[in-house]
Amino acid sequence: MGSAVMESPTSGMQDSFDARLLQALEIDGRAPFSKIAAVLGVSDQTVARRYRRLVSDGSLRIVAVRDHEKLGQEQWMLRLRCAPDGADAIATALARRPDTSWIGLTSGGTEVVCCTRPRTRTDQDELLLAKLPRTPHIVDIRAQQMLHRFFGGPDGWLIKHGPLADEQIAALRTVPPASTAHAGVQRIEPEDEPLVAALEQDGRATYPELQRATGRSESAVKRRLGALLASGAIYIDIEYVNTLIGLPVAAMLWITTAPWAMDSVGKALASHAEIAHATAVAGPSNIMATAVARDIPALYAYLSGKLGQLDGVQHVETAPFMRRVKQLTYRPYPR
Tell me, what's the pLDDT at 323? Predict the structure, then answer.
């Protein structure tokens, strides 16, 4: 039993071609198949064939994401306690909105967890003050503003403890992380919207496809996309089914710390292999995180071990996902 507790949550991933392909795409979602193939030591056809199969069956999608923290825009995490017969419909309705992501059913299917990123104050007020309070079957609403990201966003989970070696990661990375390349609030200009919208539909859209979508020259598209990625205003992200990497269990963690410990606990969480996302939030709990694990015993081992032993942690509320309704985009996923 002791060896099971000490086993890495990423054990078993080293021999998985899917895990290596996913990490390569996480590093550079627009990398040519030939480049990925050379790094992974397989043929171009092998990479292209597996990628297309994963996309066609709904297990993988690559899209551009606006980094709202870099753009200086507000983000909120909603916890909606619902009547059991209403949670699924409410989650589905929220998933269809363009300003939501990471929607899941927790607490035995009676709670909807949703990240919302309103474009304007009017959109925010409409959702939080008008639509949701009047929605039937919603029993309670908790809205917590996200204050500071410790881990997540452009820092994908696989880059932390994935199967690729350092030299493979270096060979795939084409630009430095935006957090070190540019400081301060970034902007997406109005003339960039057609370009960003096309990439939000398909992060691997070719330059000729982006040229047609924007009406700009291919060279102009290439320059502007490079500038947006380098600034961190947008990044190319991947969404995938966790069973591909042998980690089907996921849970939301609502962590209460002593005020002096919030930053140190958040940074510690960012270094944990089990943590896919961690952010400081306003509200009764002050850190929200997502943990992933290969099974329920592994999740328990993490909660009672590394997390429970962090200095300054006072309380942890755990809500395992029953089902993810939306990740970055709304699209049916294999259940």
Answer: 85
